[in-house]
Amino acid sequence: MKTISRRFFSVLIIALLALTAAARQTPGDKVGADIDSLVYNFGIVADNAAPVSHDFIVSNKGTSAIAILSVKPRCGCTVGNYSRKPVKPGKSTPINIKFNPAGQRGEVDKSVRVRLKNGDGKSEEITLRMVGQVVPHND
After folding, report:
1. In a designed cystine with 65, which of 6, 48, 86, 109 is the match (CB 3.0 to 4.6 A)?
2. Residue range 68-109, pLDDT digits in tens
3. Do the strands 78-82 and 92-99 form a parallel or antiparallel pair, or are they unpaired?
4. Distance from C-alpha of 120 to C-alpha of 30, rounded to nearest angstrom
5. pLDDT tens, residue by residue, 41-64
6. What is the pLDDT of residue 135?
7. Comparing C-alpha atoms, which of 105, 91, 98, 97 is closest to residue 137?
8. Count of CA atoms in the C-beta half-sphere (13 A) of 31
9. What's the pLDDT score for residue 134?
10. Domains and CATH numbers, the chain
11. For 1-37, what is each residue's pLDDT tens digit?
């Protein structure tokens, strides 16, 4: 009976360690990409301010080129711009995200889904976020 309990306990520990290691995977790792940050805090802006812009840098730390297949904002107040050229190993490229605060109020958390694919056929979707606060302008 002790042998069965020890074996079960050992298998359980190994399974938990494997799950923990998988949960620690950093976004972009699957395709060999390194993203400098996943969240940009733009602070406090007035609702009549110019759009807030930020470049998220995608670096290729893998051995094959990485293509940015799509950059899809979840709302019309956010726009993404990126190069359609594959990122070669050792190189980087920006994904520019622009948020327009017009018509927004309070705490905002805008997300953009980015699909990446490497030359080995592996693909991954990551989410970039712009957060901050929009306040009414003073006339």
Report:
1. 86
2. 999 999 999 999 999 999 999 999 999 999 999 999 999 999
3. antiparallel
4. 11
5. 999 999 999 999 999 999 999 999
6. 97
7. 105
8. 28
9. 98
10. 27-135 (2.60.40.10)
11. 566 666 666 655 665 555 554 455 799 999 999 999 9
Whether 84 and 114 have beta carbons less than 8 Å apart is answered as no
The residue assigned the tokens 């056929």 is 121
Helix (H), strand (E) at residue 12 = helix 2-23
d(CA 100, CA 49): 8
Q: Say which residues have a Cβ less than 8 Å from residue 89's Cβ, sequence separation at least 6.
A: 32, 60, 61, 62, 63, 64, 65
Cβ within 8 Å of residue 68, ≥6 positions away: 58, 82, 83, 84, 87, 93, 95, 114, 115, 116
Q: Report the C-alpha dihedral over residues 68, 72, 76, 80, rounded to 10 degrees.
A: -20
Question: Burial of 116 by CB count in 10 Å (0-12 exposed, 13-18 middle, 19+ buried)?
Answer: buried
